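Extended Data, panel c. Modelled sequence:
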Amino acid sequence: MTGYRFRSEDIDTSRPHSARMYDYFLGGKTHYAADVQAAEQVLSVWPRAKVWARANRSFMHRSTHWLAAEAGIRQFLDIGSGLPTEPNLHQVAQRAAADARVVYVDHDPIVLTYADALLHSSPAGRATYLHADVLRPETIFEAPALHDTLDLSRPVALSLNALLHFVPAEQGPYELVSHLVAQLAPGSYLALSHGAPDEDPAVTARVTELYRSSGITVVGRTRDEVARFFDGLEQVEPGVTMISAWKPEIEQPLTEVTGADVALFAGVGRKVG
């Protein structure tokens, strides 16, 4: 865990933040008036937002369980982790494998403020939090906290859930993911979920504008565009799908959803060389 403890004055509560809006959509308690106002504006034009958030959370649970229980992964790097709504990734992983080790990465100071909730690891495993920016990968991979927890010479599951739709084309999202995967050993995995355009273009345009007016860029991508993030990787069946169709037989869901309910794609891929 980073040694610097943020003070309350370091947290800007006057502007909405995507992680705190997500917490609100999930029914959490770690958000502020600006986040609630922005989230409610989104809900007014896109009532599915709460179902969307829960479907994404369910995929994180299912993919993490599969990676730990079926693929034998014992190390997880969760970038864009957001707030510690329970059960969190390390709890799901350690339920399947008590010795699993997890590093959470986020750049929102409020996440560090609540990081103690992340550190209730099983005795055999470990969970820690790293305050870093995915757009500056060196702040992640050069951090002592990362190397104190994970052995990058061994396979790691890289989790990028509901993150990349906040990375517009001009910031090089595909190059970014390729660079992140390149830091990992063969046998590592990429687990990814990504927002898609809504079936109603007018809804997509309105939600995009609402986020933009709050200072948050959001970009929906098609299935083919999401599949590009897995270039060079061996996709795990069933490949990139609507999020509820990715191994629905794994009993981890928070809510029942169907592919028609939410505009989200998801997939898992393996680094083979």
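Residues 1-6 have pLDDT under 50 and may be disordered. This feature is highlighted in the accompanying rendering.
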